[in-house]
């Protein structure tokens, strides 16, 4: 007996079942039931009745198999009723799902920190940037003051050497340029040291 025959509840007969009425090997009792069922507007035969028909045919010496008898028939399966779920089991499953989801979330976010989530960086990064900017600003102001003071000192001191204004200005520019270049060299070396370069 096939699994479908165990599960089937009824069927709408096909042509092989309808042809049985014209044959002579059916017992009168089964023939009457089959005629009554086929006379309805929407004929449906219980599957147990079809098995009885097949058994009667085999006893009468017919070589027809059950699947040949069912050919062209529309089989109706009973609606499977799911048993109600145990509420205690459902609650345990929900707890397990929540725990697994939480563990998966922790595994995904284990390398993420709150500091990395901030687009603009942490306060420590901001402090480093402010200190770096402050140091750069101090170096620039120091450079301007040094070069300016060198120019003024050279200009005022050169009055004892040169009497002409052009010579005094030229000497002040030359000395201020040399001091400026020396100051730039020192500033670049200091910045390289801050950046970790050799």
UniProtKB/TrEMBL annotation:
Membrane topology: Multi-pass membrane protein
GO cellular component, one term: endoplasmic reticulum membrane
Keywords: Endoplasmic reticulum, Membrane, Transmembrane, Transmembrane helix
Gene name in the database record: VMA12
Main location: endoplasmic reticulum
Any Gene Ontology biological process: vacuolar proton-transporting V-type ATPase complex assembly
Species assigned in the record: Pogona vitticeps
Annotated TM spans: 136-157, 169-188
Protein name listed in UniProt: Transmembrane protein 199
């Amino acid at each position: 007996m096939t699994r479908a025959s165990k599960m089937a509840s009824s069927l709408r007969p096909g042509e092989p079942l309808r042809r049985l009425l014209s044959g002579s090997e059916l017992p009168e009792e089964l023939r009457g039931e089959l005629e009554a069922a086929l006379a309805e507007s929407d004929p449906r035969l219980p599957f147990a009745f079809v098995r009885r028909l097949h058994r009667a045919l085999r006893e009468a010496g017919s070589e027809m198999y059950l699947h040949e008898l069912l050919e062209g028939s529309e089989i109706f399966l009973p609606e499977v009723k799911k048993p109600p779920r145990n509420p205690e089991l459902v609650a345990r499953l929900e707890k397990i799902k929540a725990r697994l989801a939480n563990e998966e979330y922790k595994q995904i976010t284990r390398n993420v920190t709150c500091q990395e989530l901030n687009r603009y960086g942490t306060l420590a990064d901001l402090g480093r940037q402010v200190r770096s900017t402050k140091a750069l600003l101090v170096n620039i102001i120091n450079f301007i003051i040094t070069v300016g003071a060198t120019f003024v000192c050279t200009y005022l001191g050169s009055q004892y050497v040169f009497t002409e204004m052009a010579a005094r200005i030229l000497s002040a520019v030359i000395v201020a340029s040399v001091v400026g270049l020396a100051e730039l060299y020192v500033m670049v070396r200091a910045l390289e040291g801050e950046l970790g370069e050799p």
